[in-house]
């Protein structure tokens, strides 16, 4: 009886083994399709450590260690082909980064994943790979980022992540999540909805769409295209590249119902695109790159950056800090500046006319040839003895050494306006300008006056000759000549014996 029972048990075991062998390929091919597979069972015991080989993968053991096709020396879990890797329902510690290739899929759901790696790129996708992160928290001390390449697709839902970097044509969506930083490059497409993000930067030809979100600051540069709606943006950093030529008169703050960079400003050429709908907006920072020309008029904004060989012209504005570096040229008129930051190692030229600033800081310790010119307006009124303006009188201003500074003819009001410089400041010291010579010429007659120094706007009135009245005519005595102004207003000269 005992022998029969033993044979029966062996027969049952053999049948069970045959059944398992028959169904093994089917089980193996479907395991990775479920989020609640092996990892769910392991997570039921609470907090634990998941080694790199503990994931759920379709018929696949992940590769480890050494360098891989992307040149990393850190250990990596490489998921490729059509495989699916699932991390779900628990708290896990990984000593390896994760690389997703081909059309493989990575799923992280209801999990806290702590990466203990030397590489800050903890998850990286290539080709047409898919990455789905849902109701999860990813951690790495002190910093980490997810890097999405090529045509990969990524979705982050109700999760917390430090940084996301989008390259190539990656398509990345973040919904109802918290992210510290997002950087988009190339032709990538980034969509944000209902989320909290510290900063978002869009470069090259990337496209960014934000809605119902709160963002600490956004940077929009190069040829990127950004659209924001129903959101809050605490600050905006807007950059212009190459040969952009723009005139900015509308950079709104507070609640903005409808605004477009291209429709609300004069843009002869610009590569960047930016539009705002029903969004609260904080202060702006404007950046000029390369050899672009940026004109700013009537704005109350934060910082202005002039870089490379760009030219920035600021009129009648209130500006935070003004940065001028490299070989940039900046002209400031009738403007209030908080602070000037000038590149000591560069060859910048900054002209501050009828404007104020609190102080100057010199960037870098190397010595180039940066120059700051502080100037004021000199108005020269040319009138006759009756006080009537003389049109087209020529007014010249000379430096102290006799070199001509500028020559202007008076307008219909007899006015010629000049910019005279109080001083030039560089990294070495301050050098004042003194003793300008103003020369007025009208129909061959001249008058000269010396301006010893200028520390604010000035206005002077000049009459080219001494005039007297006689028998209804106006006479002007000038050295050896008697000047008679006829009824038509044209003077004639009569020699005085």
Poorly predicted ranges = 1-74, 466-481
Q: Main β-sheet: number of strands, strand sense, barrel status?
A: 28 strands, mixed
- What's the total helix number? 2
Would you tell me the overall average pLDDT? Answer: 83
Structural class: mainly beta
Radius of gyration: 37 Å
Query: Proportion of β residues?
Result: over 45%
- How many β-strands, per DSSP? 46
Shape: elongated
The helix content is under 10%
User: What's the quaternary structure here?
Assistant: single chain
In whole angstroms, the N-to-C terminal distance is 161 Å
What does this entry look like structurally?
By secondary structure, the protein is mostly beta strands. It contains two helices and 46 strands. The strands form four sheets. The protein has a 28-stranded mixed sheet that branches. Strands 21, 23, 26, 29, 31, 33, 35, 38, 39 and 42 form a ten-stranded mixed sheet that branches. Strands 37-36-40-41 form a four-stranded antiparallel sheet, with no helix packed on it. The radius of gyration is 37 Å and the shape is elongated.
Element layout with pairings:
Layout: H1 2-30, H2 38-43, E1 56-57, E2 76-79, E3 84-94, E4 97-100, E5 105-115, E6 121-125, E7 130-134, E8 137-139, E9 145-148, E10 153-157, E11 160-166, E12 171-175, E13 178-184, E14 189-193, E15 196-202, E16 207-211, E17 214-220, E18 225-229, E19 232-233, E20 236-240, E21 245-248, E22 254-260, E23 266-269, E24 273-281, E25 284-288, E26 293-297, E27 300-301, E28 304-306, E29 311-315, E30 318-324, E31 329-333, E32 336-343, E33 349-353, E34 360-363, E35 371-382, E36 394-398, E37 404-409, E38 415-425, E39 430-432, E40 436-442, E41 445-451, E42 458-462, E43 466-470, E44 473-478, E45 481-485, E46 491-495
Parallel strand pairs: 2-4, 3-5, 4-6, 5-7, 5-8, 6-9, 7-10, 9-11, 10-12, 11-13, 12-14, 13-15, 14-16, 15-17, 16-18, 17-19, 17-20, 18-24, 19-24, 20-25, 21-26, 25-28, 26-29, 27-30, 28-30, 29-31, 30-32, 31-33, 32-34, 33-35, 35-42
Antiparallel strand pairs: 1-3, 21-23, 22-24, 35-38, 36-37, 36-40, 38-39, 40-41, 43-44, 44-45, 45-46
């Amino acid at each position: 009886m005992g022998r029969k029972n033993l044979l029966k048990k062996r027969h049952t075991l053999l049948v069970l083994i045959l059944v398992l062998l028959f169904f093994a390929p089917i089980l193996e091919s479907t395991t990775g399709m479920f989020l609640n597979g092996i990892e769910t069972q392991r997570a039921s015991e609470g907090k634990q450590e998941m080694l790199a080989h503990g994931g759920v993968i379709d018929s696949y053991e992940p590769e480890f260690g050494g360098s891989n096709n992307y040149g990393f020396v850190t250990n990596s879990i490489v998921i490729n082909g059509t495989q699916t890797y699932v991390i779900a329902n628990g708290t896990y510690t990984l000593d390896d980064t994760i690389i997703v290739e081909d059309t493989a899929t990575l799923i992280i759901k209801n999990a806290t994943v702590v990466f203990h790696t030397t590489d800050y790129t903890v998850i990286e996708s290539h080709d047409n790979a898919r990455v789905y992160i849902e109701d999860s928290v990813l951690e790495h001390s002190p910093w980490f980022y997810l890097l999405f390449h090529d045509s990969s697709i990524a979705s982050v839902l109700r999760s917390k992540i430090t940084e996301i970097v989008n390259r190539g044509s990656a398509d990345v969506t973040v919904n109802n999540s918290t992210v510290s930083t997002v950087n988009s490059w190339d032709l990538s497409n980034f969509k944000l909805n209902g989320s909290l993000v510290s900063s978002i930067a869009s470069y090259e030809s990337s496209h960014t769409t934000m809605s119902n979100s709160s963002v600490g600051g956004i940077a929009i540069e190069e040829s990127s295209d950004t659209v924001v709606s129903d959101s809050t943006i605490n600050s905006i950093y807007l950059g212009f590249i190459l040969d952009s030529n723009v005139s900015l008169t509308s950079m709104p703050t507070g609640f903005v119902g409808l605004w477009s960079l291209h429709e609300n400003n004069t843009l002869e050429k610009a590569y960047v695109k930016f539009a705002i709908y029903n969004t609260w907006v904080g202060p702006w920072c404007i950046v000029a790159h390369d050899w672009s020309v940026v004109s700013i008029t009537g704005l109350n904004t934060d910082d202005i950056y002039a870089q490379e060989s760009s030219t920035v012209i600021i009129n009648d504005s209130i500006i935070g800090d003004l940065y001028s570096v490299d070989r940039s040229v900046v002209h400031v008129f009738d403007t209030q500046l908080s602070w000037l930051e000038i590149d000591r190692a560069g060859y910048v030229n900054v002209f501050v006319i009828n404007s104020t600033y609190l102080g100057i800081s010199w960037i870098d310790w190397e010595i180039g040839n940066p120059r700051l010119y502080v100037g004021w307006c000199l108005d020269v009124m040319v009138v006759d003895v009756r006080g009537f303006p003389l049109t087209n009188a020529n007014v010249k201003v000379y430096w102290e050494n006799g070199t001509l500074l500028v020559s202007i003819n008076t307008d219909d009001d007899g006015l010629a306006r000049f910019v005279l410089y109080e001083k030039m400041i560089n990294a070495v010291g301050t050098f004042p300008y003194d003793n300008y010579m103003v020369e007025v010429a009208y129909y061959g007659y001249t008058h000269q006056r010396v301006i010893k120094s200028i520390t604010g706007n000035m206005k002077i009135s000049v009459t080219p000759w001494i005039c007297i009245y006689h028998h209804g005519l106006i006479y002007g005595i000038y050295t050896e000549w008697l000047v008679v102004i006829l009824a038509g207003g044209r003077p004639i000269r009569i020699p005085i014996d």
